[in-house]
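Aim 2, interim progress. The first record below pairs a target sequence with its structure tokens.
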Amino acid sequence: MKNRTLTLFVVLLGVIALVCGSNILITLNKAHTLLIKNRQIHSSVHKASSIQREKFVDYISGKDLHGWKQLPLEPKTTRQFELADPDNLGRTRDAHIQLTAKDLAKGKTATSIALKPKGWHNYDFIDNTKPAEQAKKVRLMHKKNLIDYRLSTLNNDRRNLVALTAVADTGDVSSKNEDNQNCMRYYENHLISWLKSHATTGDRLDLQVTPVYEGNDLVPHEIRLAYLGYDANNQPLEICFNSPLEHVGQHDATVVYIKNQSANADINYANGTATYHS
């Protein structure tokens, strides 16, 4: 709109110049110069935005980490659920679901997980984030479903399980803090709320969850979530929860990276062993 207004102004000055003479031509030249500069600035903003986007899309390779390609599923009217087979090291690689509110699990509670994800160890460490009188031993690593049970209704499938710290899963070393934007539960809860709020329109959620590894490490350093909505006409819907971790990914999906770490432990990602960090 700024460029259009300025262009009209320049044209108007041109007409006046024909009537009023050379003094107006000086003003015309200045306005023309201003128009060119404005266009250059406008172009630079778009160019900078493109560079920032390219850097984000290349985030994994830039950190020498690797994971499944981030890409939404083709929109369909029926539920889709895809699980990648484990790689040659037995590591979980990718889980992807597209669903509506009617596809959500009817019950909130899943059965206990019997399988052990690759690199998972049964460590109980003191919670060093609490005062000494409140400190207690707590489970370091959870057996975590990439696609939460409430979304997938699946609970004991090795293709959907990873070893994830309690902090990365539920937001706290020893108790749940589901308002913590650095944990998966924060986004899972909000995505389920989004689905329920769109139940009457039949809008769909596309959610892809990917473990991000370094080299041959058995435990992921990060978990990537990528989510996007689709309306009844298969038009994309942006989903955003105003988290500082949210960025734009491929095909305008919102992308978040969750760090798989804990304040009370030093984790050896190569094999999943850990030592207590006081």
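The second target in this work package is listed in the same format:
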Amino acid sequence: MSQSDIEAITKLQLDRVANRYRQHYQAELTFDESVISHINKTTNNVGVGARAIQLHIQNVLLPFLSELLMERLVEEKDMSAIQLSIEGDTYVSVNS
């Protein structure tokens, strides 16, 4: 699997997450390029391929996003648009 294939799979998986967010909250969830690069860097085991990407999203990204959403719900903050980025090796909300 080539690096461009891995990147395309990452974007497809992130689009699925964004679509679920859009359907549930009628709002936008976006990811900047640093998120794609981070996922590709941390899941670069070619032998595992797309499974590693899905596992990273399931075990790292989605728990972060869930915590962020719970915080926003409790604090009654705007959830109409969230953009995620990477600082160091940590997910952050750009518009928190």
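The helical segments are 3-25, 33-42, 50-74. This observation will shape the mutagenesis plan for the next reporting period.
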